[in-house]
Amino acid sequence: MSAAPAPAPAPKARGGDAVRAALIRATADMLGELGPRGISVRDLAERAGVNHGQIHHYFGGKRGLLEAAMRSLAHEHFEHAMEKQGDADHPPALSLADDSGYWRAICQTVISGDLELAAIEIEEGASVPRHVFESIQRARGVSETTAAHKAAFIVMAVQQLGWVAFERFFFLLADVQPHEEGEVRAHARVLMEREIEDQIR
Predict the structure, then answer these.
(1) Other C-beta atoms lying within 10 Å of the C-beta of residue 165
(2) Phi and psi of 57, rounded to 5°?
(3) How far apart are CA 158 and CA 160, in angstroms?
(4) Domain boundaries, given as residue ranges, for the chain
(5) Torsion sign across C-alpha atoms 13, 17, 19, 21
(6) How far apart are the C-alpha atoms of 71 and 113, rounded to whole Å?
(7) What count of other Cβ atoms lies within 10 Å of the Cβ of residue 13?
(8) Superfamily of domain 16-200
(9) Which residues 6+ apart lie within 8 Å of 99 measured at CB?
(10) Cα angle vertex 22, ends 21, 25, to 5°?
(11) Cα angle at 138 between 135 and 143, to 5 degrees?
(12) Distance (Å, rounded) from C-alpha 140 to C-alpha 137?
């Protein structure tokens, strides 16, 4: 079985804003595919359709570009989540699945051990999990959260991220047939929503 062909290089970006946007988009995509350690400056530039020297010119180097891409992904995901949340206390369960570029980049970044890069969303105030955590604290009317409450929140967050990252594998494990997938997913949403509500009470 042969590997999938690499994506074709982007058409040449022209102008500062276009170059910055092309580099951020290419980096965001590559973060989800390879993680921060697997990305080379030359591959980034080729994917974005720019000269590799422009990475240093606009971002001060690879690290600055990685941070800009993670910032962009986090803000984009946060905006989507807040739209889906509407007047509720939290976004709907499993809505994370709709932002695959974001969750893939977070998974790859954390697996590579670059927690500083992953934590940009917290520093930027654009972290959906942190938003949910703080909503739960407010609903409980507490300023200090116990270790048990923190553990319960983490388990809930793991369920959400684990589901979107490994859904296909879990379906294999549980022998979920294609015609059952929607129903199984709907049941999972109900269970996860119930768990969030239990934490808020």
Answers:
(1) 17
(2) -60, -45
(3) 5
(4) 16-200
(5) negative
(6) 18
(7) 20
(8) Tetracycline Repressor, domain 2 (1.10.357.10)
(9) 73, 76, 77, 80, 81
(10) 85
(11) 120
(12) 5
For residue 114, give both structure tokens: 């670059």
**Contact yes or no for 36/81 (Cβ under 8 A):** no
**What pLDDT score does 1 carry?**
46
Angstrom distance (rounded) from CA 59 to CA 164 = 31
Contact 170, 185 (CB under 8 A): no
Residue for token pair 């294609």:
178
Annotate the chain with three-state secondary structure. Answer: CCCCCCCCCCCCCCCHHHHHHHHHHHHHHHHHHHCHHHCCHHHHHHHHCCCCHHHHHHHCCHHHHHHHHHHHHHHHHHHHHHHHHCCCCCCCCCHHHHCHHHHHHHHHHHHCCCHHHHCHHHHCCCCHHHHHHHHHHHHHCCCCCCHHHHHHHHHHHHHHHHHHHHHHHHHHHCCCCHHHHHHHHHHHHHHHHHHHHHHHC
Residue ranges, the chain, pLDDT below 50: 1-2, 4
Amino acid at 67: E
The residues, ordered by sequence, that sit 6+ positions from 62 with a Cβ below 8 Å of its Cβ are: 39, 41, 44, 55
